[in-house]
Amino acid sequence: MAHEIIMPKAGIDMTEGEIVKWFKKEGDPVTEGEIILEIMTDKTSMELEAEASGILLKIIGQEGETVPVTTVIGYIGEQGENVVAEKDKYTAPEEEVVEEVPSHKTLTRLEDSYNVIVIGGGPAGYVAAIRASQHGAKVAIVEKGEFGGTCLNVGCIPTKAYLSTGEIIDGVENAAARGINFESTNYKVNMPKVVQYKNSVVKKLTSGVEALLRSNQVDIFKGIGKINKNKDVVVDGTTVIKGDKIIIAGGSKVSSINLPGIDNPNVLSSDDLLALEELPETLAVIGGGVIGIEMAQAFEALGSKVTVIEMMDRIIPSIDVEASELLTKLLKKKGVDIKTSTKIIELADKGGKVEVRLEGGTSVVADKVLVSIGRRPDIEALGEVDFEMENGKLKVDRYMETSVKGIYAPGDVNAIKMLAHVAFRMGEVAADNAVKGNHRELNLHSSPSVVYTHPEVAMVGLTEEQAREKYDVRVGRFDFVANGRAMASGDNVGFVKVIADNKYGEILGVHIVGPAAAEIINQASLIVEMEITVDEV
Ligand code: FAD
């Protein structure tokens, strides 16, 4: 007899759940324990596993439908089994049928107007859309790729998945020093599995974002959104959506450089490198910024021999000099070759590898080359409207409003500070102002930055050099080498440095290299935000 798939009761208060996505279609084989659908409760999104193996015979609850708990929404059984006779088919009450996602092939929405239209479903865009909807606005969002944007798909999350895999390897390598002896310390990195794990995390998060948007009553349009002369948003050139306010959250894309040989197929962007299923034996990283250094650390740990080539005199010039110097020393100790103050002349094919030719006549030969020299705003959404720009960046004021009244631009597209949590905050500010009129200003002075290397590097506020330029300062410093807990963890490299104004004791900047720096920096962030003095701390 066929096995019923039911809407679970996942909590005392849960009375109904929304079917967000079926990962299988009718006729597909399913295995017990395999994730087959995603549902959304009033609190969270959940993935449901098949409770039996067989064929997905029938899907009764359709995507977008909200059904009461314990309702049968599908059947698993044997090929050819008839299930319709066994149970009455569930039909959603008429008023509960969720409107279909508008198709870009029709012009159905022309007469329908939104309060806010958001272009781009990355951190800035999806937060702005949800926020605007929470304020009571009727909201549409247009996304040309996958929800979650750069951060979830090819940025923060994939890199953090690789870096944490790298830390597991570090742990295995250091286990003997802590008294754990394996029979053999040989291990092999199964790169397709590493990629698969990363992809599974990404998938969970991106579908969670889509579910969140739906549960916040945001209408979803899939396609490329562009603004026309009338300030409507046109999706894929066919569907015209009208709205009172527009939020452009198009984010950013990888930058390239104009060097001879740059079009070699083994020269990759960070997007490409994160999709590689074969670990390169040798990797050259052009650009020692945050992304380049995180990638260098991750691929070194996975087993590649990595060389970083940086034009400036130190890696990640935006962080404190001491932090940058310590990180350089530690990465070199791990085997990463770091060449600073080094200019690249050209790239050339060398028997299937790439030769990176450097000024002064030397070169680096690698299987793959990562170009990570920064990112540039994606301005495809701007369409037919003229905006004030600054070096390719969309100019905004402190309310996140562009030079065109009623059009806002939070996130990487304005390139003020290209970080996901900053994009969240900008998205909130843009939505608040778009819905309620310009009243909320953006303030980033307490927003932290983190480099997720091992050890982590985190900072908030001014660097020592910046602070010294403006103020009479005092600097406090404590090294993790003398910290008991860090010692016990065997993770005692690094320091915490606090820069304060000498007269009032106000904390101007905090810089941490060391264990849990990404977490500790949140306290520092709060201190800077609240303008708490050294004595009060
Ligand atoms: P995006 O995330 O780029 O999203 C923009 C979205 O808009 C995309 O989904 C795009 O498809 C869509 N879009 C663009 N134009 C259109 C259009 N015309 N029509 C429809 N849709 C459109 N930040 C951190 O804070 N911490 C980290 O650890 C971190 N690591 C990173 C690692 C890497 C390798 C990279 C590349 C970035 C990392 N970042 C990190 C930066 C972070 O990813 C970005 O700052 C953040 O994603 C910016 O959010 P956004 O919404 O402005 O833009």
Low-confidence stretches: 85-110
Oligomeric organization of the protein chains: single chain
Measured as a percent range, the helix fraction is 25-40%
Structural class: alpha/beta
**Structure summary, number of beta strands:** 32
The 3D shape can be described as globular
Q: What proportion of the residues form beta strands (DSSP E)?
A: 25-35%
Structure ligands: flavin-adenine dinucleotide
| Rg, nearest Å | 26 Å
**Mean pLDDT across every amino acid position:** 91
Q: Cα distance, first to last residue?
A: 67 Å
Number of H- or I-type helical stretches: 11
Instruction: Note the main sheet.
Output: 7 strands, mixed
Task: Describe it.
- The chain is globular.
- The protein is 26% helix and 28% strand.
- Strand 21 and strand 22 (363-366) form a beta hairpin.
- Helix 3 crosses helix 4 (191-215) and helix 3 crosses helix 6.
- The chain starts with a strand and ends in a 7-residue tail after the last helix.
- 42% of the residues are buried.
- It is of the alpha/beta class.
- The strands form eight sheets. Strands 9, 10, 11, 12, 13, 14 and 27 form a seven-stranded mixed beta sheet that branches. A five-stranded parallel beta sheet has the order 16-23-17-18-19.
- Residues 85-110 have low confidence and may be disordered.
- The protein binds flavin-adenine dinucleotide (FAD).
- Flavin-adenine dinucleotide is lined by residues 119-125, 142-145, 149-151, 155-156, 159, 224-226, 249-252, 270, 291, 378, 380-381, 411-413, 418-421, 423, 452.
- Flavin-adenine dinucleotide (FAD) binds at residues 119-125, 142-145, 149-151, 155-156, 159, 224-226, 249-252, 270, 291, 378, 380-381, 411-413, 418-421, 423, 452.
